[in-house]
Amino acid sequence: MKLSVLATSLSLELFGEDKEIVRLNTLAEASADELSYIDHSRYLDTLKSTKAGAVFVSKDYLDALPRGCSALLTPTPHLSMAYASASFATPLASLEGEPARVDASAQIFPHVFLGKGAIIERDVTVMAGAYIGDGVRIGEGCIIHPNAVIYGGAQLGKRCHILPNAVIGADGFGYAHTPTGEHIKIYHTGSVVLEDDVEIGACTTIDRAVFGATCIKRGTKIDNLVQIAHNCELGERCIIVSQTGISGSTTLGRNVIMGGQSAVAGHLKIGDFTTVAARGGVTKSLEGGKTYGGFPLVLQKDWLKLQAKILKFFNTNKENK
């Protein structure tokens, strides 16, 4: 899409060369045929070094654009990006294209949908009712259980185990907001990558990235009814217990354990070998190698001491009445 066409459709002013744009991407990773945006001063240094062909930018940061980078001038860069994302949205499925390639050793049960260009490698089992989207790659020895959904572009390594009704690669929960309170959908154009020996529990959801990939690294095991949001990265050999929720762009180190019904706010970093006890609520980045619990989150041993003191206080008051 030409920048001039996009500028006209969004009623924005174009500064610089009118370029052909093929997709949206982050400031740090965008290339000469990609469009990005900046909505906060913390990204100003990244803007100055971006290789993006064009950027949604407010007048405050216009002078920071590198040479050769075009600008779409807007007072609300994040909102403009959301509107533009509809023009670059990945099609949900295609009726035309190369058929799926299925290794002769794979077992494909009845009522499985295989999208265009999908690749099913050696000794894969795909059970009845599963949906495998366009361009998905299922690595050697994977087992896909009934009614699992793996949306287009997702990449699975070897020996992954996807339990029933799991959804891999649906759009993440992302919106920009207008001054009058409407919520404008951000179409997610990234993907999901599962490395070798990853297990995804029944009814668990792993959202595709806005840009780039949501990544689950090798050996990680995820229980039933877990939500992993867009652009998260889970390190090697993590354990994520049922009903945990991990918000967008959060990074877990290796061997992190998240107890049942625990939760992590977005854009945080959780260190290697961290344990978060059941129902723990993480609102800031955590140092690795420790066990935390409660809300607000503290070291688990301190949380247990606090609960004991509270119980002792109430029991003492009860006896004195």
Describe, in short, the structure shown.
This protein is an alpha/beta fold.
DSSP helix fraction: 10-25%
Side by side, the strands of the main sheet go 7-10-13-16-21-24-27-30-33-35-36
The CATH class of the largest domain, by name, is Mainly Beta
Span of the ends, CA to CA: 76 Å
The best one-word shape is flat
Classify the beta-strand content into a percent band.
25-35%
Counting DSSP H or I runs of 4 or more residues, the number of helices is 4
- CATH architectural group of the largest domain: 3 Solenoid
Any descriptors?
Udp-n-acetylmuramoylalanyl-d-glutamate--2,6- Diaminopimelate Ligase, Chain: A, domain 1, eleven-stranded mixed sheet, nine-stranded parallel sheet
